[in-house]
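FIELD: query
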Amino acid sequence: MLHIGSGRYGTVTDTQATLDETHIKWQPAMSTKGVPFEIGVKSYPDTVHHYCDITANPKEDFGLVVDWPFDKNSDWKSTRNDVQDTAAITRYSLYSSSSPIYDYVFEMTNTVDYNYYFNDQSGDSYPINTIEKGDHLVRYNSKKPNVLFITGS
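FIELD: result
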């Protein structure tokens, strides 16, 4: 495996993220159905932030059908070309959380800032407002955690 860095993860490779949650600050949030979940934020003092330039490329609202299933491991999965072009999401991972409260972790990497909504198979939506490009995390509970639809504005 090619090692591409370390940071909030124990180790980040080109294929797998081993989450080290001691370096994540979790912020409480509420799904559209009123279910608590958390959004992960980097907490490294030496983190270089890569803020998105919202004036560089005007973005359009979108809604895309996806099929992002739960996986027992945390391997990164590349997104389809239309997801990369339209939603600016290059990869994702959906796996079991080590949290005693939340069952799942959803991670994605974006290249443009959006107010995203990730809709799972249960019909609930989890909003993530990204002001930085890079990796974003959500940990949540769901009887049907697979992500089936994403929107952004």
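FIELD: remark
The CA atoms of residues 92 and 108 lie 4 Å apart.
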